[in-house]
Amino acid sequence: MDAYLVLHRGSRWTDVYRLVPPSEVILGRSSENQVVLRSGRASRRHARLACDETSWYIEDLGSRNGVFVNDARIEQPTRLGEGDRLQVAGFEMRFTHDLAHWSGGDPNHSRLASDQATRNYEDEATQDDLMLGEGFANETESEWLDIVSRSPASTLASQNDSTATDQTGPPRPLNEQSSRPGQIGPASASDQSLLQMAFALGRLELPDDDFEPAAELLMQTLAAQIPAAEIGLYIFESDGNLPMPNLPMPRHVHQREGHRYRRPPESLVRQIRAPGASALLARNVVGDRRLATEDTRGEIDVESIVMVPLDLPTITSAEPATNAESRSNDKPLENDTQKHERSGASGLLHVITTAGDPSLSERDLAVIVTACEIFCEACRSLSRRQRLQQTLHHSQETIRRLRKQIAGRVQILGRSEKIAQVQYQIAQVARSGAAVLLRGESGTGKELVASAIHYASPRADEPMVCLNCAALSKDLLESELFGHEKGAFTGATDLKKGKFEAASGGTLMLDEIGEMNLDLQAKLLRVLEGHPFERVGGHTSIRVDVRVIAATHRDLQAMVQKGTFRQDLFYRLNVIEIVVPPLRERGRDIVLLAEHFVGTFVQAMGRGPMKLTTDATKKLLQYPWPGNVRELRNVIERAVVMAPLETQGLHEIGAEELMLTRAVAGDTPSPPPMSRSASQTESPEPTNSESGPPISLAQLERQHIARVLKRTGGNKSQTASILGIERSTLDRKLKRYAAEDTATH
Ligand SMILES: Nc1ncnc2c1ncn2[C@@H]1O[C@H](COP(=O)(O)OP(=O)(O)OP(=O)(O)O)[C@@H](O)[C@H]1O
């Protein structure tokens, strides 16, 4: 049951508006307009709605019934100014000349309000015989103007809530057209054509932000579904911030032979472009300048209109930002519906029929709105896909660039014969894909050699992945190597690719291979022999092309004899063996490497120029370097950190500034790590000499911490790192010292 506001023009009942509170009602601006409230049982003019240049007014036409304005009977003409509200039986009608005030209402709300209003009327009808509503639609052609929700999904929700008898509400979803609520009927021709469109859109591959092919599909589908219509599709470009203000030329137009498509008037476009605007269906609009534009003869012969706002991904006329850095700084991406609610539609579909052709129906409206939703969703997902592809492309570029940088830095420094031999072997094996076994003590540079082989090989553009087999338990190592499926074991919350997959096409370095257990050795051997593998907990066979470089400090041959390393695996890995010599066997390479590390750390820490004294060099050459190049690197790093900050010009790193863990011949026993200049100026010194009063270990620790703190200029992280303790431990100790000081003062 509905109520209508009827506008009378001359002798014909023409404009009929279904009242959809809280929507506002737009009335034709004609001096002949009249408003009549009537019922299906009898129709009677009660009042006339008229207007002059500035105001609307209602005149009582002298019948026995009056019109209620704010529940008061009016007998005399009442003038309604622009924006005034008229309350009739629970309905609020607002009069306005301006389409900008025209806003859509929630269809569900409308129906409830309408039912409420009808009940109000029925209560009052006996007393006042105020005639509203029932049956009017049967008496006359159902000409109406309605605004519907933008989303078919919400239409579906409101339909399911409503009674099945309501035929005048917003359009039903297509599959309910021929069935009762809750039942899915057989797919109609329009369902099939929409599905076909959705599938075709799903298969599209679009270059850049170009929605043309998708738009063409939409136009073809609608033209086939609504043959008697002209259609215009508009896409609003933006200058990066605001959408362009004026209606652009339509991107696509469909018009029948002998018919011309006409653009909608700007005022109506503004309305549909407003944030949160709904789709609209208007019928019987012939002659209405606000809803249609004139043709070349100055006639307005548009009979019915559907307009649908489109939530398309924003298209900017400027270059779209594509690089990953700029994206990573972005706020989380707003979803398109949120964007539409905030800034309005980014496109518009406009469908018209002209006089003499059938008006657009609710069903047409449903088809159009659904097709538009499918089109917009397809464009959004195409746009998302493009953005991901651009980001991926950018990341691949970055990886390539970084790999080149790393490759440039992989330098096996040294001029000794032994290192020259290693460099020669690297050049020899790099081109081949053969397995390589690197042997050498810890810290000699085995990983560096593996990297050098990789970056000199044809696999240089592919990943180089390292895995230390000693650092993990058997099960974890298996899952690291081969990956695991989601749920394979407790804690496997996601699928994880293993290092073999990660290194696909590239090189996998298996460090400390001698620590791998026999079961896993067997699995590894199968893969090295070209068999596929499965992730832990998985059944899919995976095959990869990976070059394996194994490294160990152990004597694998001895392990084979003891039965702790598989012989077949040993032969498989040991196709080419490179022995990386210990640092103590590299002669003056020690000095070369030390000077290289001084330069590296000075630059990295932003320190002034430094060099090693002759004494320091001598000391380095005498030292046996049990920790090899890694130890040398650490010794130099510590010396650079500890060098006095206040030094002007070149600082010379003396022998006493090199903290070596073992005594070197000619050294005074374990000198404290300090520079010559510092030793002259600093006090108190940690006293580990025979002179001076003996102090406790705790005091010595406190003094040492104070001294290192001073050397690092108060930098606690650096201090903790030099002392070899956690930063939190250092904080705790400093707090305790402060508390002790407070207690003693
Ligand atoms: N010839 C070299 N030139 C420059 N730096 C080197 C050289 N050899 C080793 N290094 C450096 O010494 C450190 C230890 O090297 P690396 O990790 O390659 O040794 P490793 O033999 O693999 O050690 P581990 O057996 O403990 O894994 C690294 O920082 C590496 O850059």
Automatic annotation (TrEMBL):
Residues 412-641 form the Sigma-54 factor interaction domain. Keywords: ATP-binding, DNA-binding, Nucleotide-binding, Transcription, Transcription regulation. Residues 25-74 form the FHA domain. SMART domains: AAA (SM00382), FHA (SM00240). GO terms for molecular function: ATP binding; sequence-specific DNA binding. Residues 152-168, 316-326, 676-691 have a biased composition (Polar residues). Residues 327-343 have a biased composition (Basic and acidic residues). It comes from the Bacteria. This is Nif-specific regulatory protein. It comes from Aporhodopirellula rubra. The lineage of its organism: Bacteria, Pseudomonadati, Planctomycetota, Planctomycetia, Pirellulales.
